[in-house]
């Protein structure tokens, strides 16, 4: 049961990362964000197909390298956001980008830790929560029209 749930969470996250890459099409720095989302989409899809891939040296190296890039990006965006944000961070493009990087980093960490032992207990609960969070957030943002009012034009025309 736990193994199936872990695989399902990876399928959901691969779908999320793929969709997140797709909606970057109108963004001024789309290439950067597409790569930032497509790398974990591919790594996560591999985990959903074969969870033991996390023991592979190439997979771990790519995961580690991408995680470092995302942590550096998270720090830079957090500094910028907290220094210059003027309201709710979800209303700021940098805030949404920051949360995307945090989701990537947390998910890659969960995948990386699954190599040591099968996910169970609190780790599996965390995986389910993290896998559902992006979809619940997107639904909330879709329903909350006030939140979308302050977005730049390129964010409003994607969906």
Quick tags:
7 helices, 77% helix, mainly alpha, 159 residues
Could you describe the 3D structure shown?
The structure is a single chain. With 159 residues, the chain is an all-alpha fold. Helix 1 runs parallel beside helix 5. The radius of gyration is 16 Å and the shape is globular.
Topology as a string of helices (H) and strands (E): HHHHHHH
Distance between the first and last residues' Cα: 35 Å
Low-confidence stretches: none
Number of strands: 0
Rounded Rg: 16 Å
Rounded average pLDDT: 86
Instruction: Summarize the biggest pleated sheet.
Output: none
Shape call: globular
Total helical elements = 7
Class from secondary-structure proportions: mainly alpha
In helices, the fraction of residues equals over 70%
Relative strand content: under 5%
Short synopsis of the structure:
This protein is mostly helical. Helices cover about 75% and strands about 0% of the residues. It contains 7 helices and no strands.
List the helices and strands and how they pair.
Layout lengths: L1 H21 L7 H20 L7 H28 L8 H21 L7 H23 L1 H5 L3 H4 L3
């Amino acid at each position: 049961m736990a193994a199936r749930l872990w695989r399902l969470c990876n399928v959901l996250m691969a779908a999320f990362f793929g969709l997140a890459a797709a909606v970057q099409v109108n963004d001024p720095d789309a290439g950067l964000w597409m790569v930032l989302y497509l790398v974990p989409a591919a790594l996560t899809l591999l985990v959903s197909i074969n969870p033991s891939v996390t023991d592979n040296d190439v997979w771990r190296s790519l995961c580690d390298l991408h995680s470092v890039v995302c942590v550096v990006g998270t720090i830079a965006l957090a500094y910028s956001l907290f220094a210059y944000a003027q309201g709710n961070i979800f209303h700021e493009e940098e805030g949404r980008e920051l949360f995307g990087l945090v989701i990537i980093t947390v998910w890659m960490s969960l995948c990386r830790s699954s190599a040591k032992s099968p996910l169970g207990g609190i780790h599996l609960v965390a995986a389910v929560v993290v896998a559902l969070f992006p979809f619940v957030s997107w639904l909330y943002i879709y329903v909350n029209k006030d939140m979308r009012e302050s977005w730049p034009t390129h964010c409003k025309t994607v969906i």
